[in-house]
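the two lines:
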Amino acid sequence: METGSAQPAAGGYPERRDGYVPLREYAAIGDGRTVALVARDGAVDWLPVPDLDSATVFAAVLDSRHGGSCTLQPTVPCAVDRRYLPGTNVLETTFTTARGTVRITDAMTVPDTRLTPMRELQRRVEGLSGSVPMRWSVTPRFGYGSRPPRIRTRRGVPVVSCGADAVAVCTWQAGRPQCTESAISGRFGTRPGSRALIALSFAHEEPLVLPARAECEARLDHTCAAWRRWLGERACGGPWQQAVQRSALALKLLVFAPSGAIAAAATSSLPEQVGGIRNWDYRFSWIRDSAFTLDAFLRLGCPHEAHAYFWWLMHATQLTHPRLRVLYRLDGGARAPERTLPLQGYRGSAPARVGNAAADQLQLDTYGELLQTAWQYAQHGGPLDADIARRIAETADLVCRLWREPDAGLWEVRSRPLHFTQSKMMCWVALDRASRLAEQRLVPARHADRWRQERQAVRDFIETRCFSARKHSYIRAADSEEVDASLLLGLLHGYAPPDQPRMRGTVEAIRRELGDGPFVHRYTGDDGLPGSEGAFLACSFWLTEALARCGRHAEAADLMDQLITLANDVGLYSEEIDPAGGAFLGNLPQALSHLALISAACALTEGGRP
Amino acid sequence: MSVTAALAGGFVGTLVLTTMLRAAGELRLTRIDLPFLLGSAFTANRTRAKALGYLLHFTIGQLFALGYYTLFLALGHSSWWLGMLFGLAHGMFAGTILVNILLPLVHPRMGTPLTSAPAVALLEPPGFLMLNYGLATPIVSLAAHLAYGALIGASISLAP
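prediction for all of em together
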C-alpha cells in the first residue's frame, strides 16, 4: 500500500515518481459528456473521447510512457496553487516562479450558439507578473494508447488523426507548434497582461471544427457562466455548504447529459492498492448507488437530474426486467465485458481493465435499491405510469423468489456467494417499499399479501441468523462473526429505526472493529482477491449519518469535520484513502463518496432524519 | 387502386407494427417504444405521452400509407412484395434519419451526442440504427416496417 506523505505542502509542486503524481493531485474538469483529470503540475493525464466511457486519448495516469497526455507548465522551478473558479467545474492553476507568476484556466467547454467542436479542451494562459518561460506538449494516444496517431498540418493547424478520431491543436500566442511523429509541442514566454490559448478540438466520426480564437474565449466565459447558473439554482445550505456545493458539482460532472445516467467515477483502473490487482473500470452506472443518487438530486433541488435519472433507470433495466444487472452502461446497455488494456497501470498496478465482470454477478441488494428509488421518486410526486408500476410489482415478485439465494453482496466479492446480511436487509426494503406503494395504490396490489409474508420471513431470517449476541451486532453474513460497514445501510435505508438496540449495537461494533480514526474499512473477511485496500470513504460518511440519526450529533459533526479535511486541495474525493499516509486510492472523483457526503451533511443539518 | 384500401392497410399495418415492437419489448429484445418517443415530445407525463403517442403514431401511419399509395400510383403497380420493398426503405429511413437525426432535433426531451452540462436529457438518444435501445432493435424495427409495407401493398392490390 502506498505510504508516506501524500499531501504536499500548500503551494508545493508535485514530484513525479516514475512519471506519476499521487492521485490526490488530480482535479477533474468536464462538460457533462466526458471528464479530464488535470494534475497539479498542469498535465492532463486522463481524457476519454467522445464520452466518459469511451476509449482514452490521454491516459498517462495509467501509463506514463504510452498513455498520452497534454502538459503545460513553466520551464523553471515553481510553486503551485489552484482552485476551481467559484461555482464552476473550471480549474484555475497559478504557478509562481522566481521570474513571475502565470495563471492557467482549464475547462472542457460546453456548446454555445456558435459552431462548436464535438468536444473541446481549453487551456488559457495569462501572465500575471514578470516573465515566465512556458512549455507545452500534446501527445495523443487514441484507443487507450494502442493506436498510433498520424500528425499532419491542415491550414496551419496541427491535426492528429487515428481512424474515426481526430484532434486539432489550435494555439494562439503559445509559440510556434513543433510537430514530431508522436507529439506536438511549443514554448513561449508570458508577460504581465499576456494571454495565450491552447484549444484542443476533438472529433469522432465527423469532420473537425477549427474554432476562431474569439469563439473559444467566448465559449470559455459561457462555460463558467453556465456552471455558476446551474449551481445558483441548487439548494446547498448548512455548515458544510462549501463541501456540499463541490460535491454537487462533482456529481454533475459524472452525470452523462445525453442519457441522464450517473457514472460511479470518471476513471478506470486507478488502484485500490498501489501495485495490486484491484483495479476496476467505474465508468458505468451502478444500481447500488441509485437510492443515494435520487435522494441527493432531490435534496439539492435538481428535479431535472432526478427525473432524467429515474427515466434512464427504468429504460436501462427494461431489457433485463425483472432481473437486474449490477451495473449498466451510460447509454443504457447491459453488456460490460471485462478486458485488460495494454497499459502499465498506475505505478505498475496491473492489470489496467475496461469493462466490469461484476455486471454478471447476483447482488440482491440492487432490488432493494431500485424499489427504494422508486419509492422516493413516488413520494416526491414523481408519477409511476402503469408500465412502471407493473414492473415494480413484478420485481417484488422476483424478490420473493430470490431472497433465499446467496449472492455476491454490495461489495461484489469474487469469493463464493454468501447470505450477506445487507443483501437480505435490502430484500426486506424491496418488499416493504412494494407493499407500501401497493397500499398507496401506486402499484398493482394483487400480490401484496405475499410480499408482506415474505417481508416477515426475510426479517425472521436476519434476526435469527444474521445477528451476533456476543458482539451485539448484525454481522456480515449469516452465521459469521464479522461485521461489515455495509450494515449501516440497513439503518440509512430504513430496515431498522435508529433507536432499535440491535442497530445501535451494530453502529457501535462497526466503529469499534472497522474504524480507524475518521476512516472506516469495508470489512475484514475474505473477498476472493489477493492484497488489501484502503479505507472506504463512503463508509465514513455513512457512519457519520448513522451517528446523526442515532441522535449523537456532536460525535457526528466532529467526524464530519475530520472527513471534510480529507478531500484534496480542490475538494474532491476518490473511492478510498490510505489511513497511513492519506493517499487517495481507487477511481476518482467517486460518486458514492460525494453522494454519501451530501447525505451525511443533510442528515446533520436537518438534525438527523427519523 | 383505392385510397380507402391504402388507409385501411395503413391502419392495420400500424397496428401490426406497433404490436410487433411492443411484443419485442416484452420479449426483452428492445427498449424501442415509438408511441412513447413521439408523445414525450409534447408532455413529460409518461401516461399521457403514451396515449398521445399512439394517436400520433397512427396518424403518421396513415400519412405514410398515403405516401406508399402515391408511389404505387406513380409506378402503376401494387403488390405485397413491392409494399415490403417500400417498408424496407421506410425502416432504414426510420432507423438512420427519422428517429436518429430528425427526432432528436425537434424532441425537447431527447438527448443527442452534443447534449452537455448543465442540461440533462430526459430520454436517451437512440444512437445509430437505434442500437442504444438494444442490439436487436434494428432487426425488430426493420421486420415491423416490412410487415407494415406488405400489409399496405396487399390491401391496395387486393381491393376491388
